[in-house]
Structures are given as structure tokens and as C-alpha cells.
From TrEMBL:
Superkingdom as given in the UniProt entry: Eukaryota
Keywords: Heme, Iron, Membrane, Metal-binding, Monooxygenase, Oxidoreductase, Transmembrane, Transmembrane helix
Protein name: Isotrichodermin C-15 hydroxylase
Family: Belongs to the cytochrome P450 family.
Binding site for heme: C423
Transmembrane intervals: 26-49
Listed SUPFAM superfamilies: Cytochrome P450
Gene Ontology MF annotations: heme binding; iron ion binding; monooxygenase activity; oxidoreductase activity, acting on paired donors, with incorporation or reduction of molecular oxygen
KW Metal-binding (keyword) present: yes
Cited InterPro entries: Cyt_P450, Cyt_P450_CS, Cyt_P450_E_grp-I, Cyt_P450_sf, Cytochrome_P450_monoxygenase
Cofactor requirement: heme
A Pfam cross-reference name: p450
Amino acid sequence: MLSLDINKYSQRLVAHIQPLPPNVEVGLILCVTTLIVTIPTVVVYRLYFHPLAEVPGRKIHAITGFLTQWKSHVTGTWLREAAQLHRQYGPIVRIGPNHIAVDGSIGWPQVYGHQPGKAEFSKYPNFIFPGDGMSLIGAQKDDHRREPIDIVTWANLTTVDIIGDLTFSESFGGLKSGGYHPWVQNFFDGIRGEGMMRLMDRYLLLKPFILAIGYRHIRESIESAEMSMEKAKARVALGEQPFEGRRDFMTYMLRRGKDGVTAMSETELLVNSSIVIGAGSETTATALSGAFFYIGTHPQVYSYLVDEIRGAFTDASDIALKSTAQVQYLHACIEETLSIYPPAAETPPRVCPGATIGGKYIPKGTVVTVYQWATFRNPSNFADPNSFRPERWLPKTHALYDEKYAGDNRAVFKPFSYGARDCIGKNLAYAELRVILSHILFKFDFELKPGQSDWHEKQTSLLVWDKDPLNITLKLRQDEVSIS
């Protein structure tokens, strides 16, 4: 065991200090004294005298928010910890000196909803990125070879091509090429860099350290933003209608009012168009990948779903937006996927105007977050919250309805946020999920490649889930039907 001679250590320290000029020595002593006095004072204040001192939670989170931010923006492990904290401390938990987490059972309407006559919870700035205030059917080659394909990649290629066409009137060509467009690849590569930059904004003294460990990711994030701007500028240059009779999302962003001014400024157009592409593709692709994983790991669910889809349609041409909405077990499987694997991994926080939440007054300026993951995994809200049980979403008239889930608090199920903050692409996402799953399960049988049972469990979350490949095998169904 190593021993430490305090006297020798002190002498060496004094020897280093003594040669310093008197003014530097005095300054150093003042700085050290200030730190010695300030740090304990801040700690005591935050633990015992801060307005949130009575909110339950771990003491380390009351002292500093760094651990929460690090796990949220860098390691991606915070969501699972937040769920555990709610189980341990209840519906309101302190997760930072001025930051609380609120279970959706009391938080959705209060924090994200609109209440006449009451002040709104304002948006928390720079959550997604600094300055954000403005803001698998075609894989024939793999199918016929019957070799494993990565459904995560094909889900992303599909949804990115769809949202690219809807936003810019131009597909990214992923399904045709079988690979990511450089802009799309940069978007995924830059997500971790966005988290690093958010962390630097909050902890300026740690900027050199964060830059040292995250330079590559930050560079990728900047490159992604630059490519997004170029893509959006090219579309803006085409005007409201890129082609005769063709409208896309940018058409409405560019539309001018009676005063001749566009609904959005050029900067807002450029920022929001890239957000539409990212949010409109990644979350749907995540839900689609998650559906394949959970359906594939539950043989009985797979059997029920395939039977219901193939019983609902006699020909592939019958599969459409409206017709798939009537397939109840399909809808239940999608809802359960969104519950157990919410694609938008972390909900943007809000700033409290000074309000009572769940019977507890929360002072003005407090940052408030409702975590979907923690809310949906809370046994106070759902029976068997960690199990994949589509039957919980079925109507009582369905043959597979289970009374066990009659007491589930469905009101807290908000996978697309809440109220006026609800995702504007929700209906598009549901439509894509229904149609893509219906087409694939109508035409093909599939199974997961062995050794992937922990695919979801080992994922981390950085605004979106960091997913490994999910390899499945597809083969044409053998019975005599029209699947063209």
C-alpha cells in the first residue's frame, strides 16, 4: 500500500507557490478561498434552501445536473435511469438543480397542453441543437436471395425516400441504390455531435474536454447542417411549385400571404426543412424496426397478425391508407410498439411559468420534462409495462381482448407528444406504418436471425435510438393468392 507523507507534500506545494509574484500569489489564494467557500455554500443551498429542495430525488442530481446531461447527450443511458427514478421516488422527481421529471399521468396536460387563462410552459431553448428556436417493399434482390437483410437500413431508406419526396419533391434514391444519400448519412453521424454541443453550451468550463473527446462527432454535425442548408436552398430556388401541378411541404412553407410575405423567413425555411426530413423519417423508421423486432420475437403475436392481415385483404392492391386502418390487431401492434419502444426517445423540456403540478407548486423558471419511456414503463400506468402485449389496445369486441388490461391508463399514452405540441406528422407516421407492415406481411413470411434477442435492450438513446442492424430473412408466402 502506498503511503503519503503530508509534511513533504505540503512543503513541495509551498515551494511551487513561493516563487510566484506577490500579486499572482494573492490572486491564487483568493481564487482557492472563493472556491472553498462557494462550492459548499452552493451545495448546501441546492440541497436544503432551493425552491425545489422538497422535491424527492437523488442528492447528487440536486447538486449538479451534469450527470443527467452527460447520460442524456453523450452516453445515451439516461432514459432507463429516469424510469427507475420514477419507480423509486414517484411522479415528480428532481433530476437537476433546477430540473424536474414529471410522469405523464400528471404532466401531459399541465406541461404540454393549453389551458385557457393560464400561462403556458414555454419551450426550453437549444434542446435539439444550438439556435433551434426557429425551428422496405422495393428490396427485390435481397428478398429473392432469401439471405438476411438489415431491416433497420431498409426502414430508414424507405421513410427517408418518402419524406424527401413529400418535402422536396425529390426522393433521396435510397431504395434504388440500396445505400444512404450522403446527406442522410451525415444526419445520422451528426446526432451525437449535437448532444456534445448542447453539453458545451451548458458547461463552458468543460468545453476543451468535450471538444477533445467529441471533435469528430461535432464536425459531422456541422457538416450535416451545411448539407441540409444546401439541399433546402436548392428547393427554395424552385419556388412554390417545383413542377407544374406538384405541391410538397415546401410549397406551403414558401406560400406568401396577402401582404406578400412568406409564412417563414429564409432562415426558418432552411432550418425547418431539415428538421422535417430528420423527424419525419427517423422516428417512423425506428417504429418500423421496433415492430419487426417485437413481432418477430413473439411468435403468437406474429401468427395472429399475419392471419388478420391476410384475412383482411385478398389482393395486394386492396392495401391502402383507409383499408389498413380497419385492421384492429395491426393497430394494436403498432400502438404497443410505440409504447414499449417510443421512437422519439426524449421529449423536449419546458420552462415552468410558476404552476401547481400534481398538487405540488413548481416555481417559475424550473425546467420540466415528461419522459415518455418512464411514463409508459410505469406499473402505476400500465399492467405488464415491460412486456409486449398488443391485446391491451384492442376493443372489447375483439376475440383477443384481455380484461387484464382494462385498468391501463391510456390517457398517458402520448407517443407523439401532447396537445398543441402534438407531432404534425402523426397521421403520416401511422399511415406509413400500417401500409408498409401490411404489404410486407401480406406478401412475405419473415423471421429474425438468431442471436438478436437483446437488440433493443442494449440500445442507447441520443434524442433518437442508436440502433444496431436487425437482420431478418424474408421469403414469399406459399399459398395461392395475388401478391403482385
